[in-house]
């Protein structure tokens, strides 16, 4: 069957797939002109929805509390100094 089915059929099936995708996008109300722009913007993250304000505030408060507690823990430890090496004896 490899020799009986030529390259032309692969091109036709790809074009048919592109055509069906285009018809489906038009049917669902998407604009074909804006499709590449929307794809690029969604891949780069510019079309992300803003987070829920309540969730963002809660997370900011939790991280602020964690930061304060971590600062207290690190302050209690004090600065750590490396122990000096004993002087080496000459050979």
Describe the structure in your own words.
The longest helix has 25 residues, at 53-77. Helix content is 63%, strand content 0%. 0% of the residues are buried. It is elongated. With 91 residues, the chain is an all-alpha fold. The protein is built from three helices and no strands. The chain has two domains: 1-47; 50-78. It has helices at 7-28, 35-44, 53-77.
Give keywords.
2 domains; single chain; 3 helices; 91 residues; mainly alpha; 0% strand
Biggest sheet architecture? none
- Show unreliable segments: none
User: Class by helix and strand content?
Assistant: mainly alpha
Rg from Cα: 31 Å
- Give the number of DSSP strands: 0
- SSE order, as H and E? HHH
Number of domains: 2
Shape: elongated
Mean pLDDT: 77
Short description:
The chain has helices at about 5-30, 35-45, 55-75. It has 2 domains: about 1-45; about 50-80. The protein has 3 helices and no strands.
